[in-house]
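Obj.: predict assembly geometry.
Materials: sequence records (below).
Method: joint structure prediction, all chains together.
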Amino acid sequence: MMPYSSLSDIQSRLNSGKSTAVEVAQLYLDRIAAYNDELNAFVHIDAADVLAQAQASDAHRAEHGARALEGLPIAIKDIFCTSNGPTRCCSNILDDFHAPYDAHVISQLKAAGAVLVGKTNMDEFAMGSSTETSAFGVCRNPWDTDRIPGGSSGGSAAAVAAALTPAALGTDTGGSIRQPAALTGITGLKPTYGRVSRRGIIAFASSLDQAGPMTRNVKDAAMITAVIAGHDAGDATSVSDAPAIDWLAACDAQDMKGLKIGKPSEYFVDGMDAEVRESVEAALKQCQDLGAEIIDISLPHTKYAVAAYYVIAPSEASANLSRYDSVRFGHRCDDPEDLLDMYTRSRDEGFGAEVKRRILTGAFTLSSGYYDAYYLKAQKVRTLIQQDFIQAFEQVDVIATPTSPIPAFKLGEKTDDPLTMYLSDIFTIAVNLAGLPGLSQPCGFANNLPVGLQWIGPAWREDTILSAAAAYEHATDWSTKTPAGFNGNGDAS
Amino acid sequence: MSWETVIGLEVHCQINTDTKAFCGCSTAFGSEPNTQTCPVCLGMPGQLPVLNTLAVDKSILTGLAINADINLESKFDRKNYFYPDLPKGYQITQFTVPIVEGGHIDIVSKEGVKKRLGVTRIHMEEDAGKSMHEGLDAVSHIDLNRSGIPLMEIVSEPDMRSADEAIAYLKQLHQIIRFLGVSGADMEKGQFRCDANVSVRRTGEPFGTRTEMKNMNSFRFIKQAIEFEVVRQIEIIEDGGKIVQESRLWDSVKNESRSMRSKEEAHDYRYFPEPDLPPLRVSQAHVDAIKDSMPELPGQLRQRFETDFNLSAYDADVLTQTRATAEWYETLVAAHPADPKRCANWMANELLGRLKEAGKNLASSPVSALRLAALLDRIADNTINGKSAKDILDDMMVSDDSADAIIESKGLKQVSDSGAIDAIIQAVMAANPNQVEGYRGGKDKLMGFFVGQVMKASRGKANPAMVNQRLKALLNG
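Observations (raw C-alpha cells):
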C-alpha cells in the first residue's frame, strides 16, 4: 500500500481484503516513528492503543461488516477531548489533563469504526497561525522544514501532508483548518457554524469555533464530515433543523456548468504574494473552462474583519479560559501563599505569551467603559460582514478566493510581530464571523510552496463548495502533489 | 425634617427542578459533597450548557403570578469573576434581557393599609458551589453539588419604606412562590435568600447612597439588619458624615453588620452575551398555556374565603398561609357545610393551637378534617356544648376514638331538658340566697356567677343557652 493513499483508496483496500486495519495502522505508525521527530506533527502517540483500536475494527468488520470509516486512521488535533490519552490543547496549563470523556465528534468517529492515531500539534489553545505557540515545540512544514505549516491546526496539516496519517481532524476559529491546509497542500473543510457539535472540543471562541476534516482530497473531507455532522442535543448551538446533505454525492461533480462563482475584489489586493495571486487567477480561469461563470463581486466590509475578529475572539476566549484556575484540574504552582497567588502564579506558569496576550485583550475589550467601543462595535461589524455575504449570494452560488495571501513563511519570521501574524488569516476570518462553510484545496505553488484556493458557500450549502472543489480537483492534479523527503513525489510544479 | 427609609430587595430563589439548570445532575439537598456533579457543572474543558426548560417554565409562571411581562426572547450572559466555587470562572445569568420584566406584589400593612410594590425583573441564573473554611487548617474545601442549580433572582423596585414593608413583601413573595410550587423556598436550606439595598433620605429629597446587605436567609435577620442599617446611616449623616456605597454582611450573632467591600473594590464583571446558548425564545402560545395552568394564588384564595365563607380578613389570612392549610379547611367545610365560620374558629384557634403545642402540623395531625367535622356536627345539633367539645378534641388528639364514642363513653351529652336544668338552678339558688337577693336588688353581673355554678353542678353538660334562658326566668320570677 502507498502511504499517500486517500481515505477512499484505503477503504477500498480494506473492503477488498487486500489490507487489514492493523496493517494500515502499522504503516502509519512506522511513518510517524520515522518522521515525527523531524516534523513534530504529533504530540502524543500510543502505538499499543492505535493497534488495539485497529484490531477491534478488524474484528468488527469480520463479525458485523464495515461501518462508514471502518479501520481508517484519523489523527486528532490536541483540542479534542479524548478518553484515549491526554488532552492538553498544547498548553502547559493542562499539563497532566486526561479527559474522562470523548468529544461528541470523537464518539461519532469511534462509532463509525475510525482508528484514532494520536494527538496532533497546534498553537496553544488554537491561538496562532503557525503552530509556533505550542507548548510542545514548533511544528514544521513537510514542503520545507524551515517553514511553518500554518496554524492553528498545523500538526494535523503537516501529518496529512507528509502522510503520517491519511486524514486528520482540525478546528477552525479564524482559518485554523483552511490556512494550514493551504500552506501544506492538502484539503480542509470548515463546515457551517452549528453543523458539527462543539461539545468536548476545548473552547477558544465559542461563537466561531467549528471542527472539520483535513484530508488528501475533497471526497475524503466529505466522508469524514458526513460522520461528524449532525445535531447534538448536548450543544445548544448545534442546529437541529439544518438542511441535510448527500455529502458523497456532492463530490461526484466533474464540471461546473452553470455555476456562478463570485470573485471578490477585496481578496485580490496589493501586497499579497504575486505567485499566490497568479495561481488563484489561473484556477479561476480553469473553472471558467469547466463551465463556470466568474462574476466580480464586492464584500465591502472585509477590511474590518480582522479587527472585529481580534475583539470578539479574545473576548470570548478570556471567559472560556477562566476555568483553567488550577482548582479542579490542570497545572497548579508549587506552594501557593494564598488564593490570589495560586491563581496568578498557576496561570502565569501555565499559559504562553500569545494566550496571555489574548486573555488580556479580551478582558480589556469587555471591561466596563470599553465594552460599547470594542465588543459591541465589533458585533455590529460582524453583522455587516454577514450581510455582505448574504447580498453576494443573491448573485452567485459560491465565492472563490485565495486561502492565504502568502505561502508558508519561515519559522520565527513573524513570532515577534503579532499584528503581522494576525494578518495571515485575513482571507479566512470573515467566513467564521459570518458562520459560513469554507474549503481550501491546493491549486498550485508559489516559490515551490503550496497555494490554497478557498471556496466559500452560503450557510448549510457545503454541497455547493464540495461540488465546485471536486470538479476542480477532477480537472487538475494539485492534490496528488506530495513533498519530497517523506517518500513523496517531490513534484512542486 | 424626618427621615425616610428606602429599601429595594433582591431575592435569590432556587427553582425546584429535579436536575440542574444546564446539566442532568440531581438537585437533591444534603448529599455527600461533590457527589452530584458532572463534567458540565464541574466546568471541565469543552463542556457546554444545555438549558433546563422546566426552569424556564417555572420562571414564566412566577412572572405571570405577579402580573409581569414575559419576554418572548430573552438572553443569557456571562458574569465573569474568579472564585474557587465558581468552576467556569463565570456565572451564566440574564443581564441584558431577562425572561420577566415588571410586575408587582400587593401587601397589607399591620394597620390594614394596602400598598402595591413594584418588581423590576426576574432573571434566571445558576448557583455557585459552596466553599468551606471552618475547622480546616490552611486549606479550604469546595462542594460543587450546588454548582449549576437553577435560581430565579427577583429584583424589586426601591418601593419599601420600612423594614416591616420589606418583610411583608418578602412574606407575600415567599407565599406566592410556595403556592405556585416553583420553589421549596426553604430558607434554612438557602432556597430563598435575600439581599437588601437600604438608603435613607430626608423626606422629599432624592434617594440617598445605598448599601447592600448580602445573603440573608431569615425574615427576622432581614428585619434586624435593615433596622440596624437605617440607624447606622442616619447617625453617620447626622454626624456630618457620608454613606459609603458598599456591600455589608449581617452578623446575626453580634446583631451588627460589617463592610464586605466598597464600590471601589467592586468587581467589573465584564458581562457579555453567552455564546454557548442561543437567545431563549418562547411562544405566546406556550406562555398562554402556562397561564392556563396557573393555580389559585394566595390573594385570590383569601378573597374567596372572605366572600364565600364569610370569614374575617384575619381568619382568611391564617387559613391560606399554605395551599395545604387552605385545602384542609375546604375539606372541613365540605364535611361541615352548615357553619364555615365555626369550621374556621375550630381549625384556626383550637386545632392549630393544639398541633403547635404537640409539635405537629396539619400534615401530621392526629385529627383529620373529617373527624373534626363530626365533632362540629355534635355542637351544631346541640348534643354537646363548646366546653365539652374542647375536652373531646383534647382526647381526640391522643386517641383514635370518634367524637361520638368519646361523648358516649364519658357521658358528655348535653342536658337540654328544661325540667332537669330547672332542678339544678333551684338547687343553686337555694345554696346561694345572698347572691339571689343581690341579683334581684339590681346586681346584673351576678348572672355570670349563677351560669358558672349551674354549669359546674351539671359537670359541664348543661346546654349553656338553655341555662341562660332558664336562669333569667327563675331569678326574675
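Conclusions so far: The mean pLDDT of chain B is 93.
To do: check interface contacts against the pulldown list.
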